[in-house]
């Protein structure tokens, strides 16, 4: 077992900085505490109460304020002589006595007030003294409390330090004990772990082999299912061909044993277009159809046309086109273009997905395909479908007899001269306001070209969107719109490199350029309307 090495997170310089900060904080705290202690006020000198009121003359004044009542006239002649004089001065003495009485009464009433004022002063001074003593006691207790904070905090720090040290020691002791206990079994455990790893690797190898075998079985199963489908279609084709041959044998041939003569080939009743292009089939099937129907000795796409080998191309379409549900979803967007039309022709109708969509919308439509198996599939579903050549079929129609023409994944199967003639005749058979929709592989998208176009051996020539739009416009359709479809998923495109400098900008600009060439839209449709 390897020794465990710890990396210290606190060095000596860090400890020195912490200590200096702590000492600075202690000094500031002590200085503030000393300033607070010095700011406490001392005991104030209490004022003395005022002197007590002088009451020594109060009693004599109360006894001697009467003047008139104290004078008495003598009797006899002296009294009679003084009476006239007394009558003159008696009012003066009466007023003096009244003044003396009022003054004595005032002095008597203020004696109690003077006493109460002094008593109040004495009580107030005593109360202030007591409160000052209590305030001084509180200040002293506050200083004592503040002086105890530092020892209290220090004791907590010491306690935490001791606890931390104890825990570190406990952990060290536990690690040491674990080390001693695992030194012995460590080798055995390591051996068991190696054995488990070896067995896990063996299981992983077996799992990979099992997955490979399962994948091979799945692939073989898929191939077997595909082969069974091909065999089934071949059997059905052979059965129909035999039934057709039996129907062609005259009843009397069976009696006399004479061989029947083959029917002469059906000749085309129309003259070829300018340039005499070879007649081409109309088998598009909304997938990768529409191959030339050349004579049997020169046809390069005869296996996609009618005949006993036509079932092979049906299997090819089923494998690479997609299921009927997928095709229906892809063609659903075209239905509104024909909602106001009747007598719509689906060239290269294939299995009839678009015909079925139009039927559900109440649009009267018919299909055309050169592949006998495709036509049989449509008829079994109750759809109106004919077997024949596209240009020959259009030449057999009256002018302005169709409300719309639809061809999905057909035009890339046609020779240029044949395509030009087909577009020219389409303009003749459409009514005014009729719609022409041609969908094909977007060869301007490199992914679509190499994954879709090249894969189908019946494709004759790639058609750039600008090229097809030009020939449609030149065939008498002034209103031409190119609609790009089936966008390549953004998640699968080349992604931008995160960053904001010039290098990242240049790389991302080149990524956008590559995406615009490699991964855009897989298909496009040329939509035109006859004026």
Structure description:
With 531 residues, this protein is an alpha/beta fold. The chain folds into three domains: 35-180, no CATH class; 194-245; 302-488 and 523-529, Rossmann fold (3-Layer(aba) Sandwich). 57% of the residues lie in helices and 9% in strands. The chain is built from 13 helices and seven strands. The protein has helices at 12-38, 58-64, 76-248, 253-256, 310-320, 324-331, 353-360, 372-380, 390-395, 416-429, 446-453, 465-474, 502-518; strands spanning 344-347, 365-369, 385-387, 402-408, 430-441, 479-487, 521-529. It has a seven-stranded mixed sheet with strand order 3-2-1-4-5-7-6, sandwiched between helices. α1 (12-38) packs antiparallel against α3 and α3 (76-248) runs antiparallel to α5 (310-320). The chain is elongated. The model is unreliable at 252-272, 274-284 and 287-303 (pLDDT under 50). It comes from Luteitalea pratensis. Residues 247-258 have a biased composition (Basic and acidic residues). Residues 247-298 are annotated as: Disordered.
């Amino acid at each position: 077992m390897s020794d465990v090495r710890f990396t210290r997170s606190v060095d000596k310089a860090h400890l020195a900085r912490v200590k200096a900060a702590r000492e600075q904080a202690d000094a500031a705290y002590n200085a503030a505490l000393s300033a607070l202690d010095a700011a406490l006020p001392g005991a104030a000198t209490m004022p003395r109460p005022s002197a007590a009121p002088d009451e020594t003359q109060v009693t004599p004044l109360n006894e001697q304020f009467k003047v008139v009542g104290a004078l008495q006239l003598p009797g006899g002649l002296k009294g009679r002589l003084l009476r006239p004089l007394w009558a003159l001065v008696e009012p003066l003495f009466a007023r003096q006595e009244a003044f003396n009485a009022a003054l004595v009464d005032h002095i008597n009433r203020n004696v109690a007030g003077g006493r109460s004022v002094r008593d109040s002063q004495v009580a107030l001074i005593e109360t202030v003294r007591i409160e000052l003593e209590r305030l001084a006691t509180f200040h002293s207790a506050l200083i004592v409390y503040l002086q105890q904070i530092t020892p209290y905090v220090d004791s907590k720090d010491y306690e935490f330090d001791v606890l931390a040290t104890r825990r570190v020691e406990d952990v060290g002791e536990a690690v040491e004990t674990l080390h001693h206990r695992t030194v012995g079994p460590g080798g055995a455990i390591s051996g068991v772990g190696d054995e488990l790893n070896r067995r896990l690797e063996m299981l992983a190898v077996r799992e990979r082999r099992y997955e490979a075998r399962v994948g091979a079985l799945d692939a073989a199963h898929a191939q077997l299912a595909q082969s069974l489908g091909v065999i089934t279609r071949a059997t059905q084709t052979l059965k129909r061909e035999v039934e057709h041959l039996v129907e062609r044998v005259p009843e009397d041939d069976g009696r006399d044993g004479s061989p029947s003569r083959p029917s002469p080939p059906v000749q085309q009743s129309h003259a070829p277009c300018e340039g005499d292009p070879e007649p081409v089939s109309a088998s598009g099937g909304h997938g990768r159809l529409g191959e030339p129907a050349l004579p049997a000795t020169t046809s390069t796409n005869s296996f996609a046309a009618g005949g006993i080998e036509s079932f092979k191309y049906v299997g090819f379409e089923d494998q690479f086109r997609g299921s009927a549900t997928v095709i229906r979803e892809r063609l659903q967007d075209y239905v509104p273009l024909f909602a106001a039309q009747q007598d719509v022709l689906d060239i290269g109708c294939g299995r009839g997905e678009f015909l079925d969509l139009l039927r559900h919308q109440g649009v009267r439509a018919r299909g055309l395909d050169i592949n006998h198996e495709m036509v049989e599939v449509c008829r079994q579903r109750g759809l109106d479908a004919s077997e024949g050549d596209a240009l020959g079929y259009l030449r057999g129609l009256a002018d302005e007899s169709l409300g719309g023409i639809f061809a999905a994944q057909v035009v890339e199967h046609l020779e240029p001269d044949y395509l030009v003639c087909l577009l020219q005749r389409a303009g003749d058979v459409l009514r005014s306001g009729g719609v022409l929709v041609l969908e094909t592989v977007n060869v301007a998208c490199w992914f679509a070209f190499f994954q879709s176009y090249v894969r189908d051996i019946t494709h004759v020539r790639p058609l750039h969107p600008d090229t097809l739009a030009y020939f449609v416009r030149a065939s008498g359709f002034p209103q031409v719109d190119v609609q790009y479809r089936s966008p390549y998923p953004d998640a699968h495109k080349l992604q931008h490199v995160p960053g904001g400098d010039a290098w990242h900008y240049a790389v991302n600009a080149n990524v956008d350029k590559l995406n615009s060439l490699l991964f855009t839209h897989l298909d496009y449709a040329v939509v035109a309307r006859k004026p």
